[in-house]
Amino acid sequence: MPTLRDDLGHPLSLTRPPQRIVSLVPSLTEALAVTVPGRLAGATDWCTHPAGLDVPRVRGTKNPNRAAITALRPDLVVANREENRRHDVEHLRAAGIPVWVTEIETVEAALRSLRRLFTDVLSVPEPEWIRSAASQWSGPPALPALRTVVPIWREPWMVVGARTFTGDILTRLGLVHVFADSTNRYPRHELTSLMAAGAELAVLPDEPYPFTASDGPEAFPGIAVALVPGRSLTWYGPSLTAARGELIACIQAAIRTQDRSSTGDRIGTQGRCSQRRPPC
């Protein structure tokens, strides 16, 4: 096989398409399990999809068990620049294990990266779910241009900032990403500064922080609050085929509920669409 380069430009030399793959990224685990299930040799503890996935586990995304990975004898490990540590990638490469690192900051980048992984690295036809996701996300914006904030943690409060996959999702849906120009990807803010930013909509995912109807919406009085599946907002594998419709439905429900509110000083009203999922 010709020498390939991953999303960060690191060369990858293979003698044949990989047959034993360990995934350190939940989104990529789902993509591999759906497309080439016989080649997935291991995954992290946070790889929850597809449901019932039965492969050896190698601990978490930030603290993988490198000895366990080596023992699985993979001919490829797949990782992500944001989710995994450079330290672990370098140690695996030093042990002679090829590592393919993805970098995902937009929907377009996700689809391009996934196509390369499957067609160039794994030498399989482009999966149908990639074509379906591309079609779904090529549509025009479906939501009103509301100023939107997406908290991902509280105590301290952290929000989605610049150069993120989730931020691109917001823009593609038609929303105005309040912190799109922040200097950090996931800036910390006091709750008072979040409210002062002029948000009209708060989108609360159920991961990594498990926001629920009783934990989160009360912090955003007077604006619409949408509780959404974190997987629809942050995962970039086969879940992309349904994510757009799911997010639109959740957010439209929150907007309708807020519109029916008769006062502006009651606790933020919520559109409930999420189910608790383990953090990825």
Q: How would you characterize the largest beta sheet? A: 5 strands, parallel
State the CATH superfamily name of the largest domain.
Answer: Nitrogenase molybdenum iron protein domain
Q: In DSSP terms, counting alpha (H) and pi (I) runs of 4 or more, how many helices?
A: 9
Number of domains: 2
**In the CATH classification, which architecture of the largest domain applies?**
3-Layer(aba) Sandwich
Order of helices and strands: EEEHEHEHEHHEEEHEEHEEHHE
Tell me roughly what share of residues is in helical segments: 25-40%
Shape: elongated
**Spatial order of the strands forming the largest sheet:** 10-7-12-13-14
Structural class, please? alpha/beta
Which regions have little confidence, pLDDT < 50, spanning 5+ residues?
262-268, 274-280
Query: How far apart are the termini?
Result: 33 Å
- The CATH C-level name of the largest domain is Alpha Beta
The overall average pLDDT, rounded, is 93
CATH third-level topology of the largest domain: Rossmann fold
β-sheet strand percentage: 15-25%
Total beta-strand segments = 14
What Rg do the Cα atoms give? 20 Å
